[in-house]
Amino acid sequence: MASPPLLRAACALVPTHGFTRRALALSALSLPQPHEQPLSDTAINALFGEGDDARRTLADAWLENAREEVRGRFQGRAQVPRVNEVLEARLEANEPVLRHLPEAFALLASPTYPLPPLDPRPGLKHAFKVADDACRIAGEATIGTDWYVRRGTLAAIYAAAELHQLTSPTTAYAFLDTLLAASATAKSSLDDVGTFANYIARSWAGIVRSSGVF
Amino acid sequence: MVRNVFDSVASKYDLMNDAMSLGIHRLWKDDFVSSLKPGRRGPMKCIDVAGGTGDIALRILDYARETYADRETSVAVVDINGQMLKEGYRRFKKTMYHNTPQVSFHEGNAQELSKETFPDNTFDLYTIAFGIRNCTSIPMVLQEAHRVLKPGGTFACLEFSKVTNPLLGSLYDQYSFSVIPLLGTILAGDRESYQYLVESIRRFPSQPEFARMIQDAGFSTGGLFEGKGGAWRDLWGGVACIHTGVKL
C-alpha cells in the first residue's frame, strides 16, 4: 500500500475532525513535504474509495493504528504483560476519539448493499484481532481448540467492554476486569465439569467392559 | 505503427468503437468521468491524453457543467495523431465549448509532452482512456503524467485489462479474436488495424502489474487490490479497468 503516511497523518486528525473525508483531505497538510492545499475530492476518491468508502478506509486504518500503538507499548518489556493489561491498554487507546467511535462502528457495520441491513463481520473481525494481539503479546501458548476458545472468549469480553466504554468510559476498566475474572472462574468450573464427566464416562466404560456383554 | 493505425481508422473511430463494444464503451467512459467528479470542489485544470476525438474531454466538461454548474473547468486534449484531433475539433465545433478557454487541442507525444505548453505542476487531473497501451513506453508516459500534475493532482487511466473470471474470459477471447477483426473488415475495410487493437490489449500488463508501474512512477495509490480503496476498479469483470493514482 502506498498511502500509509497519508493515513497515519489522517489518523492523527481523527480526534479533532472525526472519521470524515475532511480529515483525509487535511492529512496532506501534515506530510513531511506538506501540500499547500487539502487533497481534492477526486484525489480522495482515487486513494481511499468513493463516498463513505473513504471513511471506512480511514476507520479501518485507525483501528489498525490503535492495535499497533498497543503492540508498541509492550514491546521490549522485560516482564511479559498479562492479558488484562493489554486489553486495558487497548481501551485506553480509544479514549481520545471516544465520541467519534460509535459513528465509526456504525459506518463499518452499515453494508454497501441494501441487504443484509447490518453487517456484523467488521465488528467481529475487529474484536477478534484485538483478542489475537492480546494473546500474542501476553505470550499465550494455547493450541488446538483452546486456541479458538481462548480468542473467542477474549474477543467477546473485549467487545462487551468496548461497548460499555462507549456509554460509560470511566467504569469500563472495572467492567473488563470483572468479565475476565468471571470468565476465568467459568473456565475452571468448566474444566472441573470436564474432568468429572471424563471420570464418569471411564467408569461406565469399565463397568460395561467387565460385564462381559462385548 | 500506432500513427498509421489511427490515421487509417480516424474517420470511423467512433462508429467502430460502438460496433465493437456494442456501445458499452460509452457506459465505461461515463462511469470513468463520474467517478472522478470533475468540478466538485471548484474548477479543475484537466489534461486528456490520447483523447483525440474528445470523448473524455466532452464528458468532463459536461459533467462539471451539468452537475456543479461549473463553466471554468478546462481540458487540454492531447493526441499524437493529427487526424484524430481534427475529428475531435470538428466534434467540439458542434458544442458550446468551441472557441472558449475551456478546451484546447494539442498534437503531442504522451511520452514527451512539450515543457513550454505543459510546464511542471500544472494540472489537477490527468486522464488517459484507451490510449496508454498504444504507447511504446508506459513508464515514460507515467513519468510525464507525474511531471505535469500538481501535487495532490490525480492520474486516472481507463484501459482494457485482464478478465479475471475464466468463463467470461474465454467468451471474451472468442469475441475479440473472431468477431472484432471481422467487423473491422466489414465496417472499415481494414482487418490489420483491428487485429492490432486486439493484440495490443493482450500485451498490456495485468491490473496489479500496471498498478505497480503507477507506483514506480511516484504516484500514491490505494492498496494493491481491486475495488473500494484499492488501486484499481474492474469494469465488467476486468474487460476494462480504471486505475487511479495521486501525486503527493
UniProtKB/TrEMBL annotation, chain A:
Q: Where is the signal peptide?
A: none
What is the annotated localization of this protein?
Mitochondrion
Instruction: Give me the segments passing through the membrane.
Output: none
Q: Which residues form a coiled coil?
A: none
All residue ranges annotated as the COQ9 C-terminal domain in the record: 123-171
Which keywords fit this entry according to its UniProt record? Lipid-binding, Mitochondrion, Transit peptide, Ubiquinone biosynthesis
Pathway(s) served: Cofactor biosynthesis; ubiquinone biosynthesis
Magnesium as a keyword of this entry, yes or no, is no
Matches recorded under Pfam families: COQ9
Q: Which GO terms describe its cellular component?
A: mitochondrial inner membrane
**Molecular-function annotations in GO:** lipid binding
Q: InterPro entries given for it? A: COQ9_C (IPR013718), Ubiq_biosynth_COQ9 (IPR012762)
GO biological process terms, alphabetically, are: ubiquinone biosynthetic process
Principal place of residence: mitochondrion
The record's section on PANTHER family has: UBIQUINONE BIOSYNTHESIS PROTEIN COQ9, MITOCHONDRIAL
Any idea what job this protein has? Membrane-associated protein that warps the membrane surface to access and bind aromatic isoprenes with high specificity, including ubiquinone (CoQ) isoprene intermediates and presents them directly to Coq7, therefore facilitating the Coq7-mediated hydroxylase step. Participates in the biosynthesis of coenzyme Q, also named ubiquinone, an essential lipid-soluble electron transporter for aerobic cellular respiration.
Name the family: Belongs to the COQ9 family.
Q: What is this protein called?
A: Ubiquinone biosynthesis protein
To which species is this protein native? Gloeophyllum trabeum (strain ATCC 11539 / FP-39264 / Madison 617) (Brown rot fungus)
UniProtKB/TrEMBL annotation, chain B:
Which EC class is the enzyme in? transferase
Supply the EC number(s). 2.1.1.201
Any single GO CC term annotated in Swiss-Prot or TrEMBL for this entry: extrinsic component of mitochondrial inner membrane
**From which domain of life does this come?**
Eukaryota
Could you cite one Gene Ontology molecular function of this protein? 2-methoxy-6-polyprenyl-1,4-benzoquinol methyltransferase activity
Compartments, record wording = Mitochondrion inner membrane
Which keywords has UniProt assigned to this entry? Membrane, Methyltransferase, Mitochondrion, Mitochondrion inner membrane, S-adenosyl-L-methionine, Transferase, Ubiquinone biosynthesis
The membrane-topology field of this record reads: Peripheral membrane protein
**Matches recorded under CDD domains:** AdoMet_MTases (cd02440)
Annotated S-adenosyl-L-methionine binding sites: 53, 79, 109-110
The pathway to which it is assigned is:
Cofactor biosynthesis; ubiquinone biosynthesis
Report the record's Gene Ontology biological process terms: methylation
Keyword Mitochondrion belongs to the record? yes
Listed under catalytic activity are:
a 2-methoxy-6-(all-trans-polyprenyl)benzene-1,4-diol + S-adenosyl-L-methionine = a 5-methoxy-2-methyl-3-(all-trans-polyprenyl)benzene-1,4-diol + S-adenosyl-L-homocysteine + H(+)
Q: Which family does it belong to?
A: Belongs to the class I-like SAM-binding methyltransferase superfamily. MenG/UbiE family.
UniProt subunit comment? Component of a multi-subunit COQ enzyme complex, composed of at least COQ3, COQ4, COQ5, COQ6, COQ7 and COQ9.
What does the UniProt function comment say about this protein? Answer: Methyltransferase required for the conversion of 2-polyprenyl-6-methoxy-1,4-benzoquinol (DDMQH2) to 2-polyprenyl-3-methyl-6-methoxy-1,4-benzoquinol (DMQH2).
Name recorded for this polypeptide: 2-methoxy-6-polyprenyl-1,4-benzoquinol methylase, mitochondrial
Q: Which organism is it from?
A: Gloeophyllum trabeum (strain ATCC 11539 / FP-39264 / Madison 617)
Lineage from the top down?
A: Eukaryota, Fungi, Dikarya, Basidiomycota, Agaricomycotina
Protein encoded by which gene? COQ5
